[in-house]
Amino acid sequence: MGACRHCRACAQLARALAVPSGDLPTGWLGAIVFVLAVALFAWAIVTITRAGSNVPTNRPTTTIVESGPYRFTRNPVYLGMFLGLIGLAIAFENLWLLMMLVAFALVIRYGVVPREEAYLERKFGNVYRGYRSRVRRWL
Fold first, then answer.
1. Cβ atoms within 10 A of the Cβ of 39, count?
2. 70 C-beta neighbours (distance < 10 Å), count
3. Is 50 exceeded by the pLDDT of residue 125?
4. CA–CA separation, 6 vs 87, rounded Å?
5. d(CA 53, CA 60)
6. Which pLDDT tens digit goes with each residue over 63-88?
7. How far is residue 63's CA from residue 121's CA, in Å, rounded to a whole number?
């Protein structure tokens, strides 16, 4: 059976994904949202890599990426993280995860994104300002 046999999280996931007769259970809905979030996150990372820019945040950005999910949102990685937390909160019917999402979203929105935008504006000037005027921050 393996190491996960007694794992509490695996047991919770299994219960959340159990399919009773009737409507789509919240476990499945949460799992679908989570999978979509992971797909968005992966698409964003692949797009950055293909554009030749650095993925690690401790390395300088080399270009403004305007393809892939960056055509629709300037922050698809953070959006994927938000959606992932929402999916887990739904799947596990866990209000604490939603409360963590609020704190996480506030830190990202007011602590991280403004610093990144200021850096990109300093580094890329009008190119970034043009991109910012065409593409919304979130959706």
1. 13
2. 20
3. yes
4. 23
5. 8
6. 999 999 999 999 999 999 999 999 99
7. 12
